[in-house]
Design a protein that fits this description.
The complex is a heterodimer of chains A (313) and B (582). Chain A has 313 residues and is an alpha/beta fold. Chain A has 11 helices and 14 strands. In chain A, a hairpin with a 2-residue loop joins β9 and β10. The chains are: A alpha/beta (313), B mainly alpha (582).
């Protein structure tokens, strides 16, 4: 069933004693997508991911991964997923290569194939030079990449990455983002939880915003954006800019404001009413000669703040 | 007070006591201590009443005996509770990474040390105060003089200070609470057994007159021993003189704690055995250039095949690498054999009254066999301790390092993971069992040589089979039991303490039942794994069971073997539930 979603979560509830960590969560992840799981601390993200990783039994509800129920067929699910927890625990007595061979054996990879598989994932994560380095001596960014290499060993369909970018420096974060994009190109479905909202908006195709165990919003970025009626800013540089032309742009329908900067105009629009290409056409219609037309990235912080109230489970 | 004398504010002590007061555990420990104390006191008091026929006037004057008993029970309580309460004083701060913050305050290292010391001592003093009503009852029976009262309080006070200072020193040295607790137990045992060690182990080597004199001079390091032997009819000045070593050791521990507090505040956890072995590895590699590269077994370079967990445990764990295990074996086995031979060679010249008075069951032993038994008991206890700690730690270390979750998402089942961990323990068990088995065989030889056992009689074979079965069944039992407890626990300290306590209670409690209740309950003793080995060592199984000796041995080890099988099966069948619990 290539068109059916890879992950289906239905009315998932997870309780720890009297504490209800997840309260009836439902969502699905289509194949080949990067699903960003966003929420404040204590929202229930890690509990949900742990249920998908077969580490936690759901109190009620159902989670299907690649057609297998995680509660009934955990063994089948484990072959389809690669899980990287939020804290990267290491065996400090192993080298990077030994660490990967250890997990290759645990994943029951054919011994004849292990050496080439380990070399491949080391190359993919750009760690070939560190193969003989002790795991404990690697930087945090390298450890995270080694964690990604580990989850790729058995070629899983779904990657569950819990806060993979937390604590990384800007360079390591960019490298991680590029690596995730590359994995998506390889056809992997990825669920990634993070607090760094701006980063998620740059590579996630779908977003789920969860708060106090409930899903506050779920869908593609554009859908969430539209649902919230958020405004989008477009930076425009005109070759024939004039106060009259600025006024005419300001008068366009669905344009909420136009700020004048020394080198450009910042045009704010309601995107659900006027798409970006519509704005471009309308400005051409006004006689504007456009030298630059650049839309801001989605303002995830605004969306997040609007959708959540700071509650925890 | 703090306004008038700002230096007496003691903020750390106030915080610690407030935290303890807010914790449920404080009240649970207090209730358990009170319960144990009162139960033990009630049993002994009822024994006295029974002995004197129950008449009110007949028991008058027995208060002294009761009071002494109360002091001994409380001293035991201090040994049992204080190390556990004090070992975490600094290690918990290290584990939380909050010790550095303490150094940034205006509190100096000495003040931090003393406030932590006091915060550990005050709760134990509050526990000791629970015995006041019982002390009053003992006093009411008569016979408790003012000297005995003062001496009793002095012993309790001094022991608390000494044990507390030792645990505090270990807490400043170690990185984790579990290692600080184990270090306290090991150093404390060595320290308190020193007089007995000197008399028993050095006697054959340096002569018993000299060793006894040395023992009498060093007995003062242990207030418990003075309390047991020498607390009657001595003036306070003599008592102070005798306990000088205990005071000196207490001060020394505190000074060392002060030195370690800052120096070892941020050290990474290092295994001293591993450091030593790595140093030895370097030396051996140099030596190998001369000897032409001789190798005994491979320890590295290989990659895992079908059993990754067993591979990591046996190739990378310091207590499981083949050549490291060989070194540990040689380090224990060679001195054991040498010492055994020294005992055998010197035996005819020994004085008949060479006694080890430290442990009650050695009191009647007065020959070579007693010294071998002492050494065997020591090695056996050590074997149980290290096996239990290693097994209890097997899964807790995975939880603490946060590597367990990742393992559980692999296609390996939880039962396979548990089985591989247990499999990796086997070579270690063999190494630990080897010196104990050597001593058993030596004792067997001595018993035959001295005519105590005869090869033509079944007694000789009963002794040998019982000794070998003790090792073959009990060590795996300790290992699986501790592993089971470790599977359920989330912290190292709790897992190790629980495993050791369960083993201690299982071994001792059934032996006490007939003593406390009545001889009709003698069968309960069989529930203790210790009972048959102890009888085998001191009286012989035939003394206990007559012509049913073989049956008794068969039944005993079948029952404990069945318990071992049950625990193993339980660990494997419930592994998934234990390991995946939130």
């Amino acid at each position: 069933m290539p068109d059916s979603p890879l992950v289906i979560v239905e009315n998932l509830c997870v309780n720890y004693g009297k504490t209800r960590a997840v309260r009836g969560l439902s969502f699905s992840i289509p194949r080949g997508e990067i699903f960003g799981f966003i929420g404040p601390n204590g929202a229930g993200k890690t509990s949900t991911i742990k249920v998908m990783a077969t580490l936690l039994r759901p109190t009620s509800g159902r989670v299907i991964v690649a057609g297998h129920d995680v509660a009934r067929e955990p063994h089948a699910v484990r072959g389809k997923i690669g899980y990287m927890p939020d804290f990267f625990g290491v065996y400090d007595d192993l080298t990077a290569e030994e660490y990967l061979h250890f997990f290759a054996a645990a994943y029951r990879i054919d011994p004849a194939r292990r050496k080439s598989t380990v070399a491949d994932v080391l190359a993919l994560t750009d760690l070939s030079e560190k193969a003989q380095a002790p795991v404990d001596g690697l930087s945090r960014g390298m450890k995270q990449r080694l964690g990604i290499a580990r989850v790729l060993l058995h070629d899983p369909e779904l990657l569950l990455l819990d806060e993979p970018a937390s604590g990384l420096d800007p360079r390591a974060r960019i490298e991680m983002r590029e690596l995730l994009k590359e994995l998506q190109n390889l056809g992997k479905t990825i669920l990634v939880s993070s607090h760094i909202l701006h980063e998620l908006s740059q590579f996630c195709t779908h977003i789920g915003i969860v708060e106090a165990g409930d899903m506050a919003a779920c869908g593609s970025l554009a859908e969430i954006y539209r649902a919230l009626s958020l405004r989008r800013t477009v930076h425009v540089q005109l070759a024939n800019g004039s106060p009259e032309l600025t006024e005419r742009i300001r008068g366009l329908a669905s344009v909420t404001s136009v700020e004048e900067h020394p080198d450009r105009l910042a045009v704010q629009i309601r995107e659900d009413e006027l798409p970006l290409e519509g704005l471009l056409d309308a400005m051409h219609g006004l006689g504007a000669k456009i030298r630059m037309f650049q839309a801001d990235a989605m303002d995830m912080e605004t969306a997040f703040m609007k959708l959540t109230e700071g509650k925890t489970a | 007070m703090s306004r008038l004398f700002p230096k007496l504010a003691l903020p750390l002590l106030a915080r610690e006591l407030t935290e303890r007061a807010a914790s449920k555990r404080t009240y649970i420990v207090r209730a358990i201590f009170a319960l144990l104390l009162m139960t033990a006191f009630w049993f002994f008091a009822s024994k006295i009443f029974n002995r004197y026929g129950g008449g009110a006037t007949s028991v008058l004057g027995s208060g002294q005996w009761l009071f002494e008993l109360l002091v001994i029970i409380q001293l035991m309580g201090i040994f049992l509770f204080l190390p556990a309460m004090m070992a975490g004083q600094f290690t918990i701060e290290k584990e939380r990474d909050s010790l550095g913050l303490l150094f940034l305050t205006r509190l100096g290292p000495w003040q931090i040390l003393f406030e932590k010391y006091l915060s550990g001592l005050i709760p134990i003093f509050s526990l000791l105060l629970l015995a006041m009503p019982l002390g009053a009852i003992a006093y009411a029976f008569g016979g408790v003089t003012q000297t005995i009262l003062c001496h009793g309080i002095y012993f309790l006070f001094l022991t608390s200070l000494q044990v507390g200072a030792l645990a505090l020193m270990c807490s400043t040295w170690c990185r984790t609470t579990a290692s600080a607790f184990i270090a306290t137990c090991v150093i404390g045992t060595i320290l308190y057994c020193l007089p007995a060690f000197i008399d028993s182990l050095l006697g054959p080597l340096i002569g018993h007159t000299l060793s006894a004199a040395f023992r009498d001079r060093t007995i003062g390091i242990c207030p418990f021993l003075i309390a047991v032997y020498k607390w009657h009819n001595v003036s306070i000045s003599v008592l102070l003189q005798q306990s000088a070593l205990a005071w000196i050791s207490t001060v020394l521990f505190l000074v060392l704690a002060r030195c370690f507090l800052v120096r070892r505040a941020f050290v990474k956890g290092t295994n001293p055995v591993l450091v030593c072995f790595r140093w030895l590895d370097g030396r051996m590699q140099r030596l190998n250039r001369v000897t032409g590269n001789i190798r005994i077994g491979k320890s590295g370079g290989q990659l895992p095949d079908a059993h990754p967990i067993a591979w990591r445990e046996t190739r990378k764990n310091v207590l499981a690498r083949p050549h490291y295990l060989l070194r540990i074996l040689l380090a224990v086995e060679v001195p054991t054999i040498c010492y055994g031979f020294v005992l055998l060679l010197n035996w005819p010249a020994w004085p008949q009254q060479s006694r080890i008075r430290f442990l009650w069951f050695f009191i009647t032993a007065d020959n070579l066999n007693a010294d071998l038994t002492f050494l065997n008991t020591l090695l056996g206890a050590l074997a149980v301790l290290v096996v239990s700690v290693a097994a209890a730690n097997a899964f807790v270390s995975e939880r603490v390092q946060q590597t367990l979750d990742v393992l559980l998402t692999t296609p390996m089942s939880a039962a396979q993971i548990v089985a591989e961990k247990a499999r990796a323990m086997r070579p270690f068990l063999a190494v630990v069992a080897a010196p104990v088995m050597t001593l058993f065989l030596m004792q067997w030889n001595v018993k035959i040589f001295t005519g105590y056992l005869q090869l033509s009689h079944s007694g000789a074979w009963l002794y040998l089979i019982c000794s070998l079965l003790t090792l073959a069944v009990y060590l795996p039992l300790v290992s699986w039991l501790s592993l089971w407890i470790g599977l359920k626990m989330r912290t190292r300290f709790r897992a190790i303490i629980t495993a050791l306590m369960v083993i201690l209670i299982w071994c001792v409690a059934p032996l006490l039942v007939p003593f406390f209740v009545s001889d009709a309950w003698g069968w309960v003793s069989y529930l203790s794994p210790l009972y048959l080995p102890v009888i085998n060592e001191f009286r012989g199984i035939q003394w206990l069971a007559g012509s049913f000796a073989w049956l008794t041995i068969g039944l005993n080890f079948s029952v404990f073997g069945a318990i071992l099988y049950f625990i193993r099966r339980r660990c494997l069948s419930c592994a998934d539930r234990y390991l995946r619990q939130a």
